[in-house]
Batch of 2 targets.
Target 1
Amino acid sequence: MSEKQYHLQLSPGDVGEYVLLPGDPGRAEVIARHFDDAHHVATNREYVTYTGYLDGVKVSVTSTGIGCPSSAIAMEELVRVGAKTFIRVGTSGSIQPGTKSGELAIVSGAIRDEGTSSHYMPIEFPAVADLEVIYALKKAATAKELPFRVGISQSKDSFYGEVEPEHSGVTSRLLERWRAWEIGGAICSEMEASTLFVLASMLRVRAGGIMVMHGEGELGSLEPLIETAVLAIRELIKGDQSAQ
Amino acid sequence: MLNEEKQYHIQLKKGDVGKYVLLPGDPGRCEPIAALFDNPVHVASNREYNTYTGYLDGVKVSVTSTGIGCPSAAIALEELVRVGADTFIRVGTSGHIQPDSVSGELAIITAAIRDEGTSKHYMPIEFPAVADIELVAAIKRAAIKNGAKYRLGITQSKDSFYGQHEPERMGVAADLLNRWKAWEIGGAICSEMEASALFVIASMLRVRAGGVMAVHAKDPMPPLDQLLKTAVDSLREIIAEDKANGRAVD
């Protein structure tokens, strides 16, 4: 039990029950600055972890790397060392026309357009975010008066398949499916949410996600996104404490 | 104009229904649900589609039966949207998946397993069938007010009733049993036959859909009064919230 997890190099006690999950290892430190008394816990491969406190409760941030394969490992090992609530935080593409850069996407469910989650559950099973996490994110974005929408994310395995589909050997399939996601009302496109959600259902933990979207115009600072995610963790802590 | 005409299957035209519609499977369950509305009137009956319209807190609401299964439920949803409905709560009974369920507890559906054929005619299988989060919250508030035992979670929406209840006699027995085990491992809470197609189509049509089921577990099933009352009160909850948010309710 006291041995370190194989990839994350973390032991029980190293992380809090609440964990933010950026993709980029370099973003872990930036997020940890929003915690009280943050300290670096471990770095191995693409997995960087910091732990600190919010309102006196231990919280952590661990980077997942890009893609569902590495994210699945991160969540499995974090749950084994005691984490129970996860918010994925990062950048994403946009799907609906008219989306402005900087709008936040609060992810309610995810399109399983990737290979990892099929190793866990049949494809018909929905990748759905935890409702308490969705409500906490919504409350936080509303309190910060930031533009946001709640909706479905496309979780894909190929970044360049999305941004340059014409360079692919499966161009027509990629374009046809992208059109389907737009018709279906999906709002954003990223690379980790679906597996995190399916796995969270199986492990009986809570997971949600908030992304800042690239759309029309330049993408500005990520600080509003990070502040919203951190405020949502505070909301969840408050809700959990009052439920006890 | 097409919309002035009666819809082909449900035999309804604009004005016949409210924006808020309860969707039982059983045509015979429409009347007891409508009895909980103010001034309910019977609007139409055709095939398995039976519709009553009445009022809740002064707002027009309706109940339309879908029949059993996603094929007929998809038709009901499509045609109801064409005559002006935009908020749907599926209400009915379901099987249970988790071993600790007891008969009569309510399953408030957050998302659905697309274990059926209809929704694939609308969206690729990777697309999630998710309920509207405002409706989920409204149903949860109504369940609490009614003192109901409830849980939130995922439903299996299947095409075969007897494939679930008597899998061993099927030609695909091993597959059915393996998949049922997967749904249990995944934390799914109930099993019914319409939610997934309703949710996928609702996403496409930009309308809201949710569902509340009374779960049938190993013990005898109690009467459905609490389920029907909770479903009707869920409409009251979402109507009140829409009014507070300045959303048109009729």
Target 2
Amino acid sequence: MPIVAIPALIRNLTDGEDSVTVEGLTIREVINNLDNRYPGTKAKLCEDDRIRPGIGVYVNGVLTKVGMHERLEEDTELHFLPAISGGVLSG
Amino acid sequence: MAEKKEYKVIGTRPIRHDGVDKVTGRAIYGGDFQITGLLHGRVLRSPHAHARIVSIDTSRAEAHPGVKGVVTAQDLPTAADKMADLGEGAVNLKYLCDNILASDKALYKGHAIAAVAATNPHIAEEACELIEVEYELLPPVLEVRQAMEPDAPILHDNLRTSSLGETGDKPSNVASHFQHKKGDIDKGFDEADIIIEREFVTGTVHQGYIEPHNATALYNPDGQLTVWCSTQGAFTVREQLAEILQYPISKIKVVPLEIGGGFGGKINVYVKPLAALLAKKTGKPVKVLMNRADVFEGTGPTPASYITIKMGATNDGKITAAQTSLFFEAGAYPGSPVGAGAMCVFAPYNIENAQIDGYDIVVNKPKTAPYRAPGATNAAFGTETVVDEIAEKLNIDPLEIRLMNGAKEGDRRADGPVYPRIGFIETLEAAKEHPHYGSPNGKKYHGRGIASGFWFNIGLESSVTINVNPDGTVNLVEGSTDIGGTRASIAMQAAEVLGISAESVNPTVVDTNSIGYTAVTGGSRTTYATGYAAYEAAQDVVKQMKERAAKLWDVDEDNIQFADGEFSSINGKEEQISFKDLSARLGETGGPVIGRATMNPAGAGGAFATHVVDVEVDVDTGKVEILRYTATQDAGKAIHPSYVEGQIQGGVVQGIGWALNEEYIYNDDGAMTNASFLDYRMPTCLDLPMIDAVIVEVPNPGHPYGVRGVGEVPIIPPPAAIANAIYDAVGIRMTELPMSPDRLLKAMGKI
Amino acid sequence: MARKSHVQTTINGETVEFLCEPRQSLLEVLRDELHLTGAKEGCNNGNCGACSVILDGRLVNSCLVLGAEIDGKSVETIEGLADPEKLHPIQDAFLENAALQCGICTPGFIMSAKALLDKNPNPTEHEVRYWLAGNLCRCTGYDKIVRAVLDAASAT
């Protein structure tokens, strides 16, 4: 199952857990399942059912451009970090 | 995983394909472009750092003989306060448009207010002086700590601090805050025998490319907009123009001409929308050129920053905890590279317990833009100086402490991701084995310093097509503008696959109508990602050529082999034909062969560098002389070693300028007082020795030839390496950049 | 607007005539009137050397010379350096040493190097660095440029 690294600023919503294993075949499913277990997390990570502007989702350390419907493999590790591309940090 | 292999083309040093054009003056750069009926545009800029614009009267300028059109923010489509996805990440459209032409407020000296098109540039300049602007002056904010004060003047009344979904309840200059946490920071510091805590300040610096920004735009009566320009990415220019002008992408063609340096500073658009607006207004082609002061005052520098670093280690040298707060200037609008700085700040080390806080803060300076490994140099200046101090206090060699704590494959970075195969340790070993490190270093006021750096590199989209010519050469079409020899490094990867010489590939960089989407030349991605696309497109050519050989010999395609530039059949009768000879027979076997590929490769692989520098400090003048410089860097696999060395040497020297001379100097009114090359003072060749570039090759498993990006990481270590060398020379820890003679004299108590 | 003056000059060995305003620099005339765009504008105030040309045997920043000043004089620009069949040895040395990245400063460096080697065919590394200090390059760190000029000196 995918492993989600919980951003430091929302660990108050996950009882202090910094990493949790969540079921899901896509990033959307993982976030929805995370939100079921820890209500409020999705609202922090997403806006209008899309990844919040300025946040990049890193799948096993690599930034995905696909977004919510990116398909995930077993034991994938997900990180939510400030989005960076082309040497640019988005505003 | 890529293995060490023998190559025919890769690793050689052919003459670059665009070389003759560039040494004969024939290459056409953006500013060289000519077209019949051309008008010339110039820009009026705010003389004030922070002011409300009460009124703009352009009537006298419009009446000036020779003037054909004047535009202000009124001519921009009303920009909504919404986020636009420009392929380079989400950007607030209102901020983007206001940075092109100020609407309600001027937020920095140099902020564009209006633009004029006239029959020649002198008339356009005269007309700019005839535009009457009434300003209501506001107090400027020029520094991050000042900007965070509770009573600081506010730049944007609607800006609230965002913190991962939380929004502040009152206007603030702090646009955002984020945090990374790993392990237990308190436990880490409890385990430490020694804790060093220091503050660092770095100045605002500019990319300093020699070619100013430029653009020529033309609207045809059918609505087609063409823009000829210098840019790091024609497609991102197209996207930005479409958003700013609210114009369909299908009606915009961006033609990238040769580019005279960028270093991250030619991704954002400045004069390109102005040329388009003026072209629309006048019905003529309009060329807008910046002058050098415009470049310093009106385009993105890289941010000044205030950084706190606290690190703890045990007596035997193990780093147990690291904590930092990074406060970065965004300039007039949100969006500093603090996120990137945070990813890099402790990246060279495997530290169990870490906490990183980043703050993005608006000030009355030009909106910052990327500059070579954006954010990482600021951050590494702090970390690498503190690591040096820990080593010194514990009496451990500074290379040894890095070898003890250096990150390896499988280690987890402080912001989370786990490293694939990386070559940090190898750069340290190369530095240790280099004769420089073993050479004597004991003269009075001479000192030696070392520092390391990390940059993550990126992949992103690249497209390549390859057309096979009947003489066995190929034409390679790509969308990556060539800033430093990438035509060669991309062509060589195709040549290797096809078994032909580098010279048998003709690479051409084309416009946005002529190739698939290709992201910017930036992020150290071009030789990696566009090179990867060239590799795949060449594989596509090989596949199709095998089909032709099969047809020629009437055998099954699966029976055709390709090696060393020869196609052969392995079953049935023995047949062989060279790539060149088969190229001549495409007509009879089915027509032209075109290979193609588009990529968004995921395995860019990080790059590490370790630098060793010797300096001499003149204790009477405070001047620091660079005596010797050695830079080791993991390039994965150097496709064209000369241009890899060139990237390393160029990055080092930009880092030396950042360390010793370069900064934006402001007066109390918030005006930059050194907006010329003379006063900004980038390094000249007289300031420098030869730069010894040592290429280490730990192949990147994410690329067929093992390529890693090389362009950015070499700028990161120099400021810290030089600071450490200054300490070794005179016993003073410099914590502020640049380490200019006046700062050094002050630190030594001489003034 | 002031009346234009008629200027007759020699550029790369050819007699050239043009009209220019008193305020137009030689750089502007070369680029905008004569379409010789090999000389580049980096700063327009003599700080960067990208517009270097040789005027009556002397190296100048063409942005600091007025177009009208070259009447009756002789100008060498980057466009005149190579023969139709082969490059000048300095140009070859720049290519072989990979002494350019973006290339915008390259014409200026090559003209500066030519002026140096015309005066001093066997310069030391320090003499090369001293002479070229008026030309800015932001890409290369100068290492390969200095080597190219030293190589060109030993080749001629």
